[in-house]
What we know:
Number of helices: 11
Distance between the termini: 46 Å
CATH class: Mainly Alpha
Order of helices and strands: HHHHHHHHHHH
Low-confidence stretches: none
CATH architecture: Orthogonal Bundle
Helix content: over 70%
Largest sheet: none
Amino acid sequence: MDLIFDGLSEAWRLLVTGDSDVYGITFRTVVITGASTLIALAIGLPVGLGLALVRFPGQRGLVALANAGTGTPPVVAGLVVAILLWRSGPLGGLGLIYTPAAMVIAQALIATPIITAITAAAVMALPPTLHLQIRAMGANQRQYLWLITREARLPLLVAVMAGFGAVVSEVGASMMVGGNLSGETRVLTTAAVLEVSKGNFGTALALGFVLLAFIVVIAGLLTAVQQRARRQ
């Protein structure tokens, strides 16, 4: 219990005193996880819609692959990105290894299958008659996609929350491609792991509490949007 109380008091001290390291790490976490979630959404949403609405050979296989991708271990995603971005790798000339950009790529790789699979499942669950009704109203392709997306908006918000939750809580991929460099690629999860390895459990708990607070705030905002969409 002493460790928990020490963590709470340390978290309060770090936040109240405006500790630059904690605020810097928190801001970096917000930027990296936000960017990776948005990229995953930009890719996963249209791909999920395509898998659900377009009939083509191999469709079931791709849906199964997207579903399997939801369980991809973060370290595997990090390994793939590290191999590609390594200095001797295919994309090594870009100089992205051990940078925030590499972390965004790895985290987007983790979140994209999750958003894709949930999007496809949400659209496939819509009543078949809805598609016919929209077509009968004379909607063009863009209007059709918009109305389908609007009808599936509640589970699509779940997809966003699931994708965000996957990237904000992962450690392995971030350390593998980011290197946990102070002031550059260190985020809340990797910083907590580092403090534990140094025996600074109070500081690690403080970072953990900040991370939990961040997750609760984001989840609260997305839930508020979801409830508002449900009332509409």
